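Morning!

As promised:
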Amino acid sequence: MTDRIQEFLAERRRAGRDNGPCLVVDLDVIRENYRGFARALPDTRVFYAVKANPAPEVLSLLASLGSCFDTASVPEIEQTLAAGATPDRISFGNTIKKERDVARAYELGIRLFAVDCVEEVEKIARVAPGSKVFCRILCDGSGAEWPLSRKFGCAPEMATGVLEHAHRLGLQAYGVSFHVGSQQTDPRKWDGALKSAADIFRDLAERGITLQMVNLGGGFPTKYLKNVPAVKQYGNAIFRALSKHFGNRLPETIIEPGRGMVGNAGMIEAEVVLISKKSEAEGELRWVYLDIGKFNGLAETIDEMIRYPIRTEADGAPTTPCVIAGPSCDSVDVLYEKKPYELPISLEIGTKVLIEGTGAYTTTYSAVGFNGFPPLETFII
Amino acid sequence: MTDRIQEFLAERRRAGRDNGPCLVVDLDVIRENYRGFARALPDTRVFYAVKANPAPEVLSLLASLGSCFDTASVPEIEQTLAAGATPDRISFGNTIKKERDVARAYELGIRLFAVDCVEEVEKIARVAPGSKVFCRILCDGSGAEWPLSRKFGCAPEMATGVLEHAHRLGLQAYGVSFHVGSQQTDPRKWDGALKSAADIFRDLAERGITLQMVNLGGGFPTKYLKNVPAVKQYGNAIFRALSKHFGNRLPETIIEPGRGMVGNAGMIEAEVVLISKKSEAEGELRWVYLDIGKFNGLAETIDEMIRYPIRTEADGAPTTPCVIAGPSCDSVDVLYEKKPYELPISLEIGTKVLIEGTGAYTTTYSAVGFNGFPPLETFII
C-alpha cells in the first residue's frame, strides 16, 4: 500500500464514489520496478509483457523510461505504438498468430516474431520477409507457483530444425526463448533452460547459422503472501548461468517481465457483501462473499493458484477460517476454499477490504458483463 | 446448426466480414425451447436465468412469450425491465446482494428475493419490507456434468430457521429453492431435493407458517456431444417426485432454465490459427490453436467440464487426437488436453470450425480485452 493509493481511496470515499470494487495502480511503483530490473540485469533489454496491464498510462510511462514491449496481438501492438514506442522496440511474442495479423504487424513496422514450429515460420516468411524470429522451447517449470502448460514452445531438439527452416526461408534465425513458469520463486531455474539454449546455439553454429539472442522470458515474481527473492538475486543467478553455458561469448539477452513489473503497483478495494454459515456441522467456518471474484478481476485465483494478501481494518485481531467467494451467481466463482483464508472474527458485512498485488492480470481478464456486473473499474495514478 | 444460422454465416463470409470468431444465436430455437418447457411442466412458471445470455433480443422474445426472469444483479433487473418484463415477473435470485442493491431492486418494484442465511434476510427486511423470500438449500449434485460448489444454499436443517426469521421480521416466507447441478442428465435427481423441501414445508407448517412455492432451479441440460433426456422426461420425473413428497397439496413451482433455454440456440464460428507438434516423442498428437479460447467465450471449458461439439468441413474423414487451445499468450488457455479431441487429419490452418451448443454462458463471460483480443462478437437472428 503506497501513500498515494491510500490518499486516492480516501478521497474516493469522501466523494461517495466508492460504489463498487476498483483497482488503483501507482505509476511510481512501476517506475521503481523498471529501474530495479535495469540495475539487476544491466546488459539485458526489458520487453514489458503488455498483457499484464495494458493501461495507456502504464505503456506511456514505460515507453518514456526506454522499455521495449512484448505483445500478444495486433491490438496490443497498436496500443504500444500509440503510447510512444517505436516498432523496433516491439516484439510480437505470441507463438500463435493469424497470417493476416503477422502481415499487419509487418506493415506497422514490426520485425521481431516468436515461433515454436515450422508452420509459424512459413507464415512469417510469406508475409514478413527478412524478419528476425526466435524459437520458444519447452522447459521445466518446477519451482514456479504457476507452472506453465505445454501450450507454448517445442522440445529443444525440434528448435534447431525450426530455426534452420527460418534461415532457409530468408528469415533471420535470431535466437531462443523460454519461460521458466509464472511467479518463479527460484532464481536458479534459468540454469537448465540456458543450457538447452546454449546447445541450440552450438548446433546451429555447426550448420553455419549464428544465433544472437536469448529471450529469458518472464516469471519474475511479485510479493503476495510470501516473500520472494529480490530482483538482484535473479540478475546474479542468470548472469552465472549465462557465463556457465555460453562462456565468454555471451548472447544478447532480453527479459519479458509482466507480473514482476506491475503486480505490486496495484491494489484492489472491495467490499464484504455477505458473511454467513452453511451449516452448524461446519463449526466456525464462515463464508465471506466479496463484490469481486473470478469474473470481474481475480481470474488468477483459478485453482487457488495466486493467493492474494487481503487486508482489513481489523488486521491483528483474532481470526477464523473463511471460504472467500465472489458476488456472481456462478458456482465456480469461489476464490479460496481448499485452503480457507484466516480473516478477523470482527469483519462485518459492508466493510472494505484491500487486496494487494493486483496490478497484473486483473483488468483485462475482467468479463464484459458477467451476471450484469460491470468490468473492474481502474484508476492509474 | 439451423438453416438460418448457416445462411447468416455464409452471407458474412461472402461480405468478407468473417474476420474473427463470432456467436450466432437463432431466436426460433429459443422460442421452441420455451414452448417445450411450458408443455413439459404446464403448471410451473418459467423464470429464465438471464445470466445465461442477457442479449436484449433474447430477453424481449422471452418477455413476449410470457416468461418470468431470474436475475443476478441490479443491471440484470434493469435489462429485463427494459425488455418489457413487469417487476412481478422478476426474481432477484442471487443469494449474495449488497443491501443498497436490494433497496434499488425494491424501488424498481421487485418483491421476490433469494436468501440462504439470516444475515441476508435481515437486509431484505430492512430495505424491502413485506417482500417474498425463498431459502436456497444445498443438495446433492451427483449426476450433473457440472456439479455445483457449496457456494449457494444452506443445510436443509438451517433453512427452517432462516424462513422463520424472515416471517418474524414481517417478510413473506414464501418457499424453498435448490439446484441439482448444471447440465444435470439424470431427471430423477430432483427427488432427493424435493424430499428436503417437503420436510421444510412441514416443519414450518407446524410453526404456523405456510410456505407456498418450490423453486426447482435450473440444471436442464443442452445437448453437447452426448444425447440428453428430453425435457418431457424431466417434467414427468419432477411431477412424480412432487406428488410423492407433497401428496395432493402440491406447491406452486417455478423453474430457472438458462443453458436448457438458450444453449442449443447458439453456434460459434472460429478459425484454425495454427496446427503444430511439440515434439517427435508425442507421436501423432497435434496441437490445434483456435481464435477462440477460455478468455473470449469458452470459459466453460475450465477443467474440461463442457465438451462442445466441434464441426469441421472434413468431418467423417480419418482423425488424429488433438490438444485444442485458444489464441492468447496464456498458458491456462487450453480447452481440451487431458482428454484430447479427435479432429480430421486434413484440417488446415485458416479453415473455419463450428462450435455447437454455445448459446449459453459465452458472451458475457468474455473478457473485456484480454491479450488485446476483443470480446466475442455476437449476432442474434
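Chain A touches chain B through 79 residues (CB under 8 Å).

Hope this helps with the figure draft.
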